[in-house]
Amino acid sequence: MADDTRLPEGMTCGDCQWWEPNGPGERGGECQEHFQFATRYADDPACEPVVQMWAAQNLLKAAEFRLQEEQKSLALYWDLTKRYGYDPDAEDPWTWLERQLAERREMISVLEESIGMAKRRTESIAYYLRVYIHAHQTDNAVPQHLEAEALKAVEGLAEPKQKPEAIPEHSFCESVMAGPNSAWHIRELTGVGRKLGGGADTKSLCGLKMGWDLDVEIVEHHLGHACKRCVEQFRSRPRACGSSYPETGAGGAEGENAEKALTTKPKSEHRRNS
After folding, report:
1. pLDDT tens digits for 83-104?
2. Which domain does 57 fall in, by range?
3. Distance between CA atoms of residues 249 and 103, nearest Å
4. Are 79 and 57 within one domain?
5. First-residue to last-residue Cα distance in the chain
6. Distances in Å between the alpha carbon of 213 and those of 16, 33, 136, 202?
7. Predicted pLDDT of residue 113
8. Distances, alpha carbon 128 to alpha carbons 102, 173, 265, in Å
9. Count of domains in the chain?
10. Which of the chain's ends, N or C, has fewer CB atoms near its CB within 10 Å?
11. What are the pLDDT digits (tens) for 228-267?
12. Cβ distance 210 to 202 under 8 Å?
């Protein structure tokens, strides 16, 4: 591995996505094995959940490592101050120490908060992946390498509240339309503006063909990224609020929006074609 891609001392390949010794946004080295993993699947929309899962896990590990380094640094400051009793700028050593401790504690507090958020995000994506894999098992639409990587990604993480075994076929589309995993929720889990899949030759999350791109604009329609068969299959079922979906084109804003979501290309595609 070249000098500019070596991981810092104490870390091994697999502990981080990007190592940032100069602060967030200033990448100092890349783990080539992980970089190649991301680029290998970058052009396959079906692999997006795995890449997201991998990134969330490694960002969490990197944050935990940086927290450990800050804690070591805190101990080092204390040791040096006790040993020398003064700082190089001739500032009162106790004033200097108090300021340094306050800064370090603030940094540790920020990192701990970030780690908590990263853990919650990782657990959410882990649940999403379990649902994603289960929903494809009947149709055999998941490539074998994707299923293996996804199962590996969620191994050892917190168990989801709802076991995948209890989720029926095509339930991902149903959950988007009627369950707790709304389109907004899925969009948040996968990142604003990131695609879940798309294109005329791309399979939907339940294994069926779709004829339009999936991005944040079409996701806003809530019904727009469910496949047509699932829309028809679940349209007559009760929603979470107790009401039923209106028939497409039968009148009312919701029916019209559902039809529009299924047949209208997102604005981003119009921009690409213009």
Report:
1. 555 555 556 656 666 776 777 7
2. 1-165
3. 61
4. yes
5. 44
6. 31, 30, 20, 9
7. 74
8. 39, 12, 25
9. 2
10. C
11. 444 444 444 443 334 333 443 333 333 334 333 333 333 3
12. yes
Q: Is 101 helix (H, G, I), strand (E, B) or coil?
A: helix
Count of CB atoms within 10 A of residue 271's CB?
8
Does residue 274 sit in the same domain as residue 139? Answer: no
Q: Based on the domain organization, do 131 and 70 belong to the same domain?
A: yes
Average pLDDT score, the chain: 48
User: Dihedral, CA atoms, 156, 160, 162, 165, nearest 10 degrees?
Assistant: -20
Same domain, 93 and 183: no
Last residue of a domain, one of 135, 165, 195: 165
Band the pLDDT of 167: cuts 50, 70, 90: very low
Backbone dihedral region of 197: left (phi > 0), alpha (psi from -120 to 50 degrees) or beta?
A: left
**Residues 14 and 78 reside in one and the same domain:** yes
**Residue 30, strand partner residues:** 18
- The reported pTM is 0.23
SS3 at position 179 = coil
Ramachandran category for residue 78: left, alpha or beta (phi over 0 → left; psi -120 to 50 → alpha): alpha
Tokens of 254: 């919701």
- Domain identity same for 15 and 83: yes
Round the CA-based radius of gyration of the chain to a whole number and report it. 24
Final residue in a domain of this structure, among 165, 192, 216:
165
Confidence of residue 127 (pLDDT cuts 50, 70, 90): low
pLDDT digits (tens, 9 = 90+) for 10-26: 444 444 444 444 334 44
